[in-house]
């Protein structure tokens, strides 16, 4: 079932012949397995779950992952750790090279029961790519086994990124949140959104913390941060991002960014350029 034959490889060393079906990775008698798959812009994976935890990561491209509790927009350098059994769906926003890791349920218990965004270090990226060059059912006490244990160690040490977009259930708020997600730089007010949703601004203001745990402005800032990271990854400048997201000045945008994340967008740009 897991036979891996000699074959040509992708530029990053991943064999073309490796299975692209997630089912082939769920019951392999190994603590960690890794899968590679390519997606076109606009592809969609319907709601599903796994018996293993999943580290959802892409070396190129952007995807949006949704559960009943939240939405995450993931550019390269960011991965989403999804616990066992969590139902999720994936929208591919641009041509995407996915490199996903499946972790045995008992082993993954140490990472908690909530989805979390992790920084993908250069070392973690290379470890994942190296494991993808090994057989799916790699030899125990061999290179693949060592790589798997190093991946687990890097996941434990990885920095978490406090960017999550909690998702409501109230149909009026869902309509508003969906519209904002589609136009994160819109300068429309809460009153404008309320008119479209058939509710009062006061009702929406009350619903945001009740449904998402965040006040309207806090929720909007999470959307802005998610969009900003995608733009930063594309190499856009801070001033251009600030303008695109409706901020009065780059300094106002940078202040919001630093207040929530503890670092400036310039810091991330410098760090990423140094790593490339």
Describe the protein's architecture and organization.
The structure is a single chain. With 276 residues, the protein is α+β, with helices and mostly antiparallel strands. 40% of the residues lie in helices and 20% in strands. The chain has helices spanning 105-108, 122-132, 143-157, 171-182, 190-197, 201-212, 216-233, 238-244, 250-261, 265-275; strands spanning 32-39, 44-48, 53-60, 63-66, 70-74, 78-82, 88-92, 96-103, 116-119, 160-161, 165-166. The strands form two sheets. A six-stranded antiparallel β-sheet has the order 1-8-3-6-9-10. A hairpin with a 3-residue loop joins β4 (63-66) and β5 (70-74). The longest helix has 18 residues, at 216-233. The radius of gyration is 20 Å and the shape is globular. Pfam families: AraC_binding, HTH_18. InterPro entries: AraC-bd, Homeodomain-like_sf, HTH_AraC, RmlC-like_jellyroll, RmlC_Cupin_sf, Tscrpt_reg_AraC-type_HTH. This is Helix-turn-helix transcriptional regulator. It comes from Janthinobacterium kumbetense.
- Estimate what percentage of residues fall within beta strands: 15-25%
Q: Largest sheet, if any?
A: 6 strands, antiparallel
* Strand/helix succession: EEEEEEEEHEHHEEHHHHHHH
Structural class: alpha+beta
Low-confidence stretches: 1-11
- What is the count of helical runs? 10
Helix content: 25-40%
Principal-axis shape equals globular
Radius of gyration: 20 Å
The total count of strands amounts to: 11
**End-to-end gap:** 37 Å
Query: Reading side by side through the largest sheet, how are the strands ordered?
Result: 1-8-3-6-9-10
- Average per-residue pLDDT, rounded, comes to 90
Oligomer: single chain
């Amino acid at each position: 079932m897991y036979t891996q034959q000699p074959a040509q490889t992708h530029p990053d060393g991943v064999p073309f012949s490796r299975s692209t079906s997630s089912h082939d990775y769920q019951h392999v008698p190994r603590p960690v397995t890794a899968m590679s798959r390519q997606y076109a812009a606009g592809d969609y994976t319907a709601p599903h779950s796994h018996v293993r935890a999943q580290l959802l990561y892409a070396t190129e491209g952007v995807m949006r992952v949704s559960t009943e509790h939240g939405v995450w927009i993931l550019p390269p350098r960011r991965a989403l750790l999804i616990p066992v059994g969590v139902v999720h769906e994936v929208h591919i926003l641009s041509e995407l090279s996915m490199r996903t890791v499946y972790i045995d349920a008992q082993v993954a218990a140490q990472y908690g029961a909530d989805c979390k965004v992790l920084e993908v270090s250069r070392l973690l990226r290379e470890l994942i790519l190296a494991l993808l060059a090994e057989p799916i059912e790699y030899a125990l006490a061999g290179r693949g086994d060592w790589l798997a244990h190093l991946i687990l160690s890097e996941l434990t040490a990885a920095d978490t990124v406090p960017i999550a977009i909690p998702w409501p259930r109230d149909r009026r708020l869902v309509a508003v949140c969906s519209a904002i997600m589609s136009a994160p730089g819109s300068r429309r007010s809460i009153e404008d959104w309320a008119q479209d949703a058939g509710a009062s601004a006061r009702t929406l203001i009350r619903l945001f913390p009740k449904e998402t745990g965040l006040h309207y402005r806090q929720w909007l800032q999470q959307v802005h941060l998610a969009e900003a990271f995608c733009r930063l990854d594309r190499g856009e400048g801070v001033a251009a991002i600030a303008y695109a997201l409706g901020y009065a000045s780059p300094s106002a945008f940078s202040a919001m960014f630093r207040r929530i994340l503890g670092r400036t967008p310039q810091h991330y740009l410098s760090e990423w350029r140094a790593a490339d």
